[in-house]
Amino acid sequence: MLPKPVSAQDLNIYGRADLPWERVLEALDVAIGLPETAEFLGTVSPSGTPSSAGIGCVEADGHIYFTSGPAARKSRNLASNPNCTLSLRLPGVDLVLSGEAHRVTDAAELDRVTAVYRAGGWPAERSGDDVTAPYSAQSAGPAPWHLYRFTTHTAVGVALTDPHGATRWQFTH
Predict the structure, then answer these.
(1) Model's pTM, two decimal places?
(2) Which of 11, 23, 34, 54 is the most buried (most CB within 10 A)?
(3) CB 51 within 8 Å of CB 4
């Protein structure tokens, strides 16, 4: 799963303990990549216009991955500025990750990640340095798609159930 943070800051204004990172990891392990898990990528255009798009994520090798069509706004935005956010509604936790997303072109990494997608029910395959499948999300456009690896710099989590808490974590990169 995701790497261990190097620091944590309690953001809870009600005096309770910070949200444990292990609780976030458990929620990620249960929910990432499921169709019912809300996952949104936030990017910025070269002109500074923000954009948000629903995506389908998977976790592999301690990173979060997602796909995007080469002509999609998110791909164009990431090509000019890799800084982005991932926002996820997990069981009991809202999580916003800030970091960078870079296109993956390494064949071995593409093969490992498409195997994770297949294990989750999406019949993805590597085709050169892209991903193909007989279908994808309705808004994804036709194959092929680029694969992106997200690297987390910071995360903010807010617990939605008891015990409540809010925490900001920092990561090395």
Answers:
(1) 0.94
(2) 23
(3) no
